[in-house]
Amino acid sequence: MTHNMSVDLCGVRLKNPVMTASGTFGSGAEFSEFFDLNRLGAVVTKGVASTPWEGNPTPRICETPSGMLNAIGLQNPGFEVFAGRDLKFLEETLLPDEEPAEEGSLALSSGMTGTKVVVNVCGHSEEEYLDCVEKLSGERRVDFLEINISCPNVREGGIAFGTDPKGVERITAAVRKAARQPVIMKLSPNVTSIAEIARAAEAGGADALSLINTLTGMKIDVERRTFALANRTGGLSGPAIHPVAVRMVYECAKAVRIPVIGMGGIRTAEDALEMIMAGATAVSVGTVSFHDQRAALGVIDGIEDYLERHCVPDVRDLIGCVR
Ligand SMILES: Cc1cc2nc3c(=O)[nH]c(=O)nc-3n(C[C@H](O)[C@H](O)[C@H](O)COP(=O)(O)O)c2cc1C
Prior knowledge:
By secondary structure, the protein is of the alpha/beta class. It is 29% helix and 19% strand. β15, α7 and β16 form a beta-alpha-beta unit.
């Protein structure tokens, strides 16, 4: 039986619903030694700002039960280096779209549609976000912009934009106006009502939402009697946050009409299918890639296997099937 694995993400077709999570996959170069990036629905890059950022002092990562804390602080080389190095790598590595064989035929899992590029954007201020978005708008190989308004590890920008509905609506509208590509707003779980934030982003003109970013946490090093991270707090990711993420994807998918991309602790196809059944159109595989570099492939193959076992002809039939 042939299955359709492709999904429509705000008018752009992904060959399958599996993407990487920003900041856990670089821009793919390190991972291309382990598998062909052309198997992915999309590559999501680490956050980039218009100018280079140093990030936070070390130590800035530590392990926790079933997860990790990070306080990288969005270290990045800035737009110029990113475009000349990372985007260039993706342009050289990812194959372009192929025309469907017949009009109206679906891009099947064999891969008619080229892997898409999602660039994650960060900024300390509205001006910085817009500056980076304008620069990226001129880049042909960028298919989507993902706007990180949810990083818990930077004092200005990041989460400061993502926790107030009015602020979310305003920054979304400004970015939407400046962007050429579809805009995905990346939401923080560190709020009382994520559905309210989701509605604010939709009202501002977001084309899609992605969630969740990391949950703020803290670890104490009892031998040294101090904080495990120099930043004191960090963002919790990995399997520990998966049930929280599924709940939030469900709430947001019910609250808005635009597509939702689900992430948070996905390790297996089963985890990804939970997100899809909760209402996600696509999913991102994150922290697990640090110890299993081929995890995203396992998720793709596992979803196909599920469709086969359950005689489901189209992955889209599963989106939001649990209501
Ligand atoms: C080391 C690290 C760096 C991250 N950097 C970014 C980033 O630059 N931009 C962003 O939007 N999210 C960033 N994230 C958040 C992830 O993209 C993802 O939302 C989160 O980790 C939950 O998914 P996971 O549990 O599968 O890792 C980062 C996460 C980690 C662990």
